[in-house]
Amino acid sequence: MSHDLPERGNPFMNGDLGDQALRDQTPDALLRGAGRYCDDIALPGAFHVVFLRSDEASGAITALEASEAAGMPGVRAVHTGADVAGVAALPVNAVMPLARVPSFAVLAKDRVDAVGQPVAAILARTRAEGMDAAEAILLEIEADPDATGDPAQGPIAEQHWSAGDAAGAMARAAHRIEAEVIHARCAPLSLEPRGIAVRPEADGGLTIWHSTQTPHRTRSHLAEMLGIDAGLLRVIAPDVGGAFGMKASLYPEEVYCVWAAHSLRVPVRWRATRSEDFLSATHGRGIAMRGTLGIDADGRFRALSAEIDAPLGHWLPNSALIPGWNAARILPCGYDVPAVDITSTATCARRAATGIYRGAGRPEAAALMERLVDKAARKLGLDPFDIRLRNLPDADQFPRGTATGQTLDSGDYAGALRRLRQLSGYDALAAEVQRRRAGGDLVGLGVAFFLEPSGEGWESARVTWHEDGRVEIASGSSAQGQARARSYSAIAAEALGVPPGDIDVRYGDSGTCPEGIGALASRSTAIGGSAVLECCRALRAARDAGDALPLVHETRFETRGQAWGYGAYLVQLSIDAETGAPQIEAAFCVDDAGRVVDAQSASDQIVGGFAQGVGAALMEAVRYDASGQLLTASLMDYAVPRAGDMPPLTLAELATPSGMNPLGAKGVGEAGTIGAPAAILNAAIDALSPLGVQDLQMPLTSQTLWHAMQAAKGDRS
Ligand code: SMO
After folding, report:
1. What are the pLDDT digits (tens) for 43-87?
2. CA of 322 to the centre of ligand 1 (A)
3. Of 31, 183, 365, 667, which is least surrounded by CB within 10 A?
4. Tens of pLDDT along 78-107?
5. Which of 190, 214, 358, 477 to mutate for ligand 1's pocket (most ligand atoms within 8 Å of CB)?
6. 13 pLDDT exceeds 70?
7. Are 632 and 620 in contact (CB under 8 A)?
8. Where are the domains of the chain?
9. Measured in angstroms, how far is the CA atom of residue 418 from the centroid of ligand 1?
10. Best mutation site among 670, 673, 674 for ligand 1, i.e. most ligand atoms within 8 A of its Cβ?
11. Contact 245, 284 (CB under 8 A)
12. Which CATH architecture has domain 392-399+409-454+562-716?
């Protein structure tokens, strides 16, 4: 197996670690196969880590005997839970108040809490030798009769959002519209699985190559968990082959690798297999939401209540609570709703951990709200644009607070819907749908409006203006293939008045870049880019004041508040009356990302995000059986969209600057993933509405749609 060879064919990496933080301005190198990923790092003498994992979802470890494995060829060490019991718990971002401190096991000790949980780790010369040794470990688990209970016994976090007299307003409303949306668990499925490579250094420190969105967080959390001075750790995120939120937290497997390299002072590496990622990387979605919208006779929204059940797994990654929190605080989704009563509850289960996944609660909020709005429109016989325009604020009503305590910075929400109506030629499309329905076609249109708050807090930049005129940006932000170097170069080029080609960009290396948060939550242009801009402005001012080159300046930029991107999408979808096969015939996307720095990467984000939204809407679902066994552990069983599943997309943009940052930028990295499922769901229900179908749950597979059609026909006959 080629991955067992210590010397890799990658020309960048043969014996020369190079400067991995220096990045190409375009992603072309990644597309040509010239990327330098974690598994490409030459680490002579490194031991490969292989994990023995639990095959039970719940039970006591009654026997664990590793002495034979430890003596096998190529094996350096075998570790079990007792060896790593001193490692402290992973910090969890408590955006919702935590009822209990969740447990965190690097390797299972005494009992197992999910299928796939690492129980023992083998360090071996080759991966194959490690796998042989894993087979020689005796592991016995006495499975509990109920394999799927709640390991934490009760919700681990719960939060309420209330404003106004929601109960009274609901009681007085002319109509109460109810909807339920249940999201399947999804696998974020980055093309590059998780990976880490660790090299002990002579000074007692460690260099850690980690496939991560958040290299600085990796460093600070490892220091905290392992009790190592952070100054001794250098974390490098080399090229990262996709992440989508799944690589924003440390995993038990990765913590083990660093612990082992540190304890034994040997180089260590691990790269997950595809099945290991299905088993033990974080899943996204899985949230179930029920809501009631109280409306006036003229279609105005008066009150909104909702219950959000956010499922967690058997351990909590750093951002585990974000989706359930986002789904609640974003839920009114830009619409004017004076009174709300929303509860979000997060509960553990004997499953793989859940975490943030592109959108992270935003798609869930949009799907429920847009179902409620569509149902309200149907109840009153209003057109889907009319009811939305009646309830969205005008452009001159910003900034504005929401009933869930958020501040919407700027926007022209109604303008986006009007633009969508015009862009899609909605009136002609609707007439065409009626004509085709008369001929027996199952075809529908779905509209969705959505919000995409981009992150909070700060990012940093250090910019050096060299004597030869070249400029070097070192960003504390990070990237996983988003052409970040190109957009940061564009920002600096304009601020400094130098050609973009004279600018080098580095990020993702705690050794050569200033501290930062990372590439997540649609924050990198709005916040990281603003740090670059402010830093360059300071340099430009110094230069204008007569300072000679070289000049260097470092800036930490703190956003004034969240920048709220938003969009309005329309999907036309048909369903094969015989097979239930859905086909998205066309899709129209109007997005407002504030001031756009790099139009190409903005539209690429929308297209890629839309593809992931198509996956969630039509086919993706992680499935477990009743005993907690994962049924979808490979791409043979877990469907993802391919190029042929993508509809023709027509994109248009509004550009309402945000006042939250000097660029005026808003995030757009998650937009497609947020808007697509809501619009697709509404379109599918519209397509089947002539049969009397009023509700469907995603993923909208042929099977789901076929059963819905049969049930509707049965009801009518
Ligand atoms: S789900 Mo994203 O990487 O914040």
Report:
1. 999 999 999 999 999 999 999 999 999 999 999 999 999 999 999
2. 10
3. 31
4. 999 999 999 999 999 999 999 987 789 999
5. 358
6. no
7. no
8. 392-399+409-454+562-716, 458-558
9. 29
10. 670
11. yes
12. 2-Layer Sandwich (3.30)
